[in-house]
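Q: I'm a student working through a structural biology exercise. My instructor gave each of us a protein and asked us to get a predicted structure, then write a short paragraph describing it. Mine is Transcription initiation factor IIB. I'm not confident about reading structure output yet, so if you can add a plain explanation after the tokens, that would really help. Here is the sequence I was given:
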Amino acid sequence: MAYSQPFPLAQPPPKVQPPTYGPDLAVRLICPECRDPNPAIVEEFSSGDLVCGTCGLVLGDRVVDTRSEWRTFANDEGDDPSRVGAASDPLMEGMEQLDTTISFRDGGSGIARELQRAASRSQASRSERNLLQAFRDIASWCDQFSLPKTISDIAKQLYKRSDEEKLLRGKPLDAVIAACIFIACRQAHVPRTFREICNLTHVSKKVLGQCYKALEQAFNLTPGASATTDRHLTTPAAARGPEDLLVRYCNHLDLPPNVQPICSDIIIQARELGIADGRSPVSIAGGAIYFTCHLLGKVKSAKDISTVAGVSEGTIKLVYRLYYAEKEKLVKEEWVKEGKADLSRLPVDSFSK
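A: Happy to help. First, here is the predicted structure for Transcription initiation factor IIB. I'll explain a few features afterward.
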């Protein structure tokens, strides 16, 4: 038996329809160039552009392909790598770039280990496996050194060429990789010293120098060779000169921005006068920073500079004494007139300070 509602409403509540979403058919996309009332709009999914088919004007970019994904399983031809898989790597041209990873979870039976061993043997040859391992080591060391991907790619290209031409047969893999990173840093205008590369890769300086000299002769690289023409090509050794180390050293020492250009001018002037010739670039950079800091009143101790540059305090002060003997020739008059520099700030005997 059904009971009626004791207080029925005068009108039943209207049913609320859920909102429906769809394209607004009243909106028409017309090319602003040709203004055709019936435009031929073409969606180029390969480039992600929306193009007018009449005049070719690009009406929009970043078009998302809403079509269904597809794959091909052909063994020989017919597959299109632009639709499925990662982007092709030109450094791995001619090698299989898709890997199969087998899980370690096999219940302790050891089958997974045997499958991994069989898969690694069947997928790539020994030379390809060594090349992939070298690429992984280069990427790992560049990440530890906070080097950009550009240097990593250059180092990989150098290693691949040296491996294909068998330039360093018999040399340790770590030494070859270290030499490639060293050359890549110079070509990218962010040079690193032998000591820094040796500390990173734990390769002896002697072996690193041998590999570097072999690659330099094989690739016909001039000292500090670069792919572009700029100030680094003005002198043969400009790319490995001490002025290229000033940016990093001054940043580590928290020096103001005006110290680095003045210090660079002092180093260039000293080179033209033949002051401190024969000294290593690291020693000259450390001594020049010590000289410039006292000249500008931004005093930094020789111990702090020694920690950053990686040279002894005695070497830094020795270069400073050579600069101090020719201070009138190294310091420009305009610096003194503008109040930036003051020769009276320079200590007379650096070993007593």
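A: Here are two points you could use in your paragraph. The mean pLDDT is 77. The beta strands are 41-44, 49-52, 58-61. It's a good idea to check both against the output above yourself.
Q: Great, thank you!
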